[in-house]
Sequence to fold (187 residues):
Amino acid sequence: MARLSKVVIPDLNIKVEEETVFLPDLNVKVEEETVREKEEIVQNKAIKKTRSPSSLPIRMIQTISDMKGRNLCFATRKILKRSDIATNLNRFLIPKSAVLWELLYEVEKTATEGKGLEVVVVDPRGRVYEMKLTKWKSMNVLNSTGWRKFVEDNELKAKVDCARVWTFRSTSAKLCFAFDVKRQLSV
Fold:
């Protein structure tokens, strides 16, 4: 389903993944339907769209540039769930992403299966958070008190906020993430 195509921009090596984006059909009447039914309507209406780093917020791009970020690559997209913003869980479940796994060095893959790999996360306003990337059986997880602070600072809401997750490397080759969070139409 996902295809990678390489886009060349001067001084940057950027990979853009073509993905399926779900948008609501605005002609559908949803007044009498439950939230779950509304979500199914949104998920069943799909269009193809290519993600471009030019759509990232200016402050985020500036922070990535200040970090001498390189190899910016779109990893995944996810509408946040309650478990992603729950104060008692302190973690973000990253959907299975072959792209993300392919970007990790062998030593990093090993670290994710143990105590976790220390990573940096940049939010849409260019703020930086320290977190750990760990691998569970079926998915990758970003966790730590850094995630809790990220949720609070960005006032994230379940079922209406969509995170577009990008990866890049800092000058020290440290794995970093850029989370571009957009508020979607209420379902």
About this structure: Residues 39 and 60 are 29 Å apart (CA to CA). The chain is about 25% helix and 40% strand.
